[in-house]
Specification:
Shape: globular
Distance between the termini: 34 Å
CATH topology of the domain at 2-120: Nucleotidyltransferase, domain 5
């Protein structure tokens, strides 16, 4: 998508029931659509699942079974996210992880995989800050003085990812090594 301010990006993040896109499920999806002028729109949704969350997932994300009871179905969330990110360049930290989950869920639903162009802020940070020893989203955020409000929650991680992206492409001197 191109608007009067140039390319439009969509930073996104997922929270999942585990690490395997082949057997685990998305339980939260958050996204921020932005361009060089700033944030254009935000999206965040829990996803209903029909099984109890593994305790370690609740411990890491603070998402509980109760929070997912009345959440939308994965079909609705995938359709909403497709519309929200339509024409955008997707941006994610360790993008292959989130990309695999989104497209595995879409494939299981009989939906077409998303074909957006994508930028991985993990790869971008490794390029922009080659002397760093760590590249986790939280480490980068701390070094860039980005306010993290709720680590391991989809919307906040997407917002932080957007800010890491902007710092890396606009000001490679901003990180404190």
């Amino acid at each position: 998508m191109i608007n009067e301010n140039g390319a439009v990006f969509c930073a996104f993040d997922t929270e999942t029931t585990g690490l395997s896109y082949k057997k685990d499920k998305i339980i939260e999806l958050g996204a921020v659509r932005f361009d060089k002028s700033g944030v254009l729109a935000t999206y965040n949704s829990f996803v209903h699942v029909d099984f109890p969350l593994p305790p370690i997932i609740t411990q890491i994300t603070h998402i509980t079974d109760q929070m997912l009871l009345d959440a939308p179905t994965i079909q609705k969330v995938m359709a909403d996210f497709e519309e929200f990110s339509k024409g955008c360049v997707l941006v994610a930290h360790n993008a292959q992880f989130d990309w695999n989950f989104v497209n595995a869920e879409r494939t299981a639903l009989g939906m077409k995989e998303l074909k957006n162009k994508a930028i991985d802020t993990l790869d971008l940070a490794r390029w922009a800050y080659p002397v760093n020893k760590k590249y986790s989203l939280q480490y980068l955020a701390a070094g860039m003085k980005i306010d993290v409000q709720a680590a391991h929650r989809a919307y906040d991680d997407a917002r932080v990812c957007m800010e890491v992206f902007l710092c890396a492409v606009c000001d490679t001197d901003s990180i404190q090594k």
